[in-house]
Each structure stands twice: as structure tokens, then as C-alpha cells.
Amino acid sequence: MSSVFEPEVVEVMDFSKADRSTETQLSAEEKREIDAEFSHYEDKASVGLEALRIVQKHRGWISDQSLQAVSDYLDIPSAQLEGVATFFQLIFRQPVGKEVILFCKSASCWIMGCARLQARIEQKLQIAPGQTSGDGIFTLLETPCLGDCDKAPVMMVGEEMHRNLTEQSIDEIIDNKKRRHADESTD
């Protein structure tokens, strides 16, 4: 049985690229991807959210300079884009780790022990919600609901949903991600 919330599969952000967050112009690739979205919407303003997602995919997060570059390209007020960027939890207005952990705090997850599991994540990574681990790999964010209540407790790491969490499964998920990033850095 499928859940109410099925996350859209999107490309994983590549944080290994040079930091482009302060660039004041969109790259040709970013413009090409944004232009491809125009056919799906009635006007440029409607492309705002998708444009922010595209730029974030390339830059890792949406800095003030990145937001202004999108505003200039779409010819819409930066305040309007700021409203979009701050409304959607998955548009990051500050730097985040390579892996963003969205930890569900719904009533179902709470009943199933999410407080204990969140404490395990915080202890293992030595961070609190809203912080990034010292190695830059993980950022922990709380979310009110991920819509997978029948499989609580749940969390997302990047675009991957993890269900029926236990302390052991959390340790395995984090350890596997750490190994993967360590392997990538030695390549």
C-alpha cells in the first residue's frame, strides 16, 4: 500500500563542486534547465519554485546572491522569491551538509518513540536540530510530518525515506552514509 506522501525523485545535490553560492549570475546550465520548465507553466513567476530547486541542485543552497540571480532571470521581485524560498522546507537558505536528515515529529512518530531515536542521531552526530556535523556530511532538520505514519517512526536522508526506524537501523544508515562519503573523497 502506498503512502499519502511519495517524494518526487530528483537528482541528488552534488556538494563536491566548488562553492558557487555567492555567484551573482546563473550558469548556462542553470538557465537551460530553468528554460525547460517554462513549457510547464503559464508565466515566469510560476517557475520560481522550480528555478530555486534547480539552482540549489547546482549550488547546494540558496544564498542571497543566488536568489537575486533567479529573481533577475525570471524578472520577478526578490521578495516574492524569498517568500517561496522560506515557505518550502526543502529550499535551504543557509549551507547544509551533503546529507540532509529530515526527522519526522508527527504524532504517530512521537507515539512510536521518535524522541529516543532523535536523541540517538544527535548523540551519534554530535549535533542538534538545525546544525551540521563537523565533517560537513549531515544536517539534521525536524519536520512536522513526512506522511508515512503507518510506518512510523520515519526520516528522510536526502531523497531516501527510511521507515520503521530503530536505534540499530539509524546507526546503520548513518554509518553507511559516512562510509560512502569517505569512499567518494578517496576517489
Automatic annotation (TrEMBL):
User: Does the record bear Iron-sulfur in its keywords?
Assistant: yes
| Catalysed reactions, semicolon-separated | a quinone + NADH + 5 H(+)(in) = a quinol + NAD(+) + 4 H(+)(out)
Instruction: Kindly list the GO molecular function terms attached to this UniProt entry.
Output: 2 iron, 2 sulfur cluster binding; metal ion binding; NADH dehydrogenase activity
- Name the source's superkingdom: Bacteria
Q: What keywords were assigned to this record?
A: 2Fe-2S, Iron, Iron-sulfur, Metal-binding
- What PROSITE patterns does this protein map onto? COMPLEX1_24K
Q: Which cofactor does it need?
A: [2Fe-2S] cluster
The record's comment on cofactor binding reads:
Binds 1 [2Fe-2S] cluster.
Give one Pfam family, short name only: 2Fe-2S_thioredx
Keyword Kinase on entry: no
Q: Which residues bind [2Fe-2S] cluster?
A: C104, C109, C145, C149
Coiled coil, from the record: none
| Family to which this protein belongs | Belongs to the complex I 24 kDa subunit family.
Q: Which PANTHER family match?
A: NADH DEHYDROGENASE [UBIQUINONE] FLAVOPROTEIN 2, MITOCHONDRIAL, NADH DEHYDROGENASE UBIQUINONE FLAVOPROTEIN 2, MITOCHONDRIAL
Protein's name according to its UniProt entry: NADH-quinone oxidoreductase subunit E
Q: Which organism is it from?
A: Microbulbifer rhizosphaerae
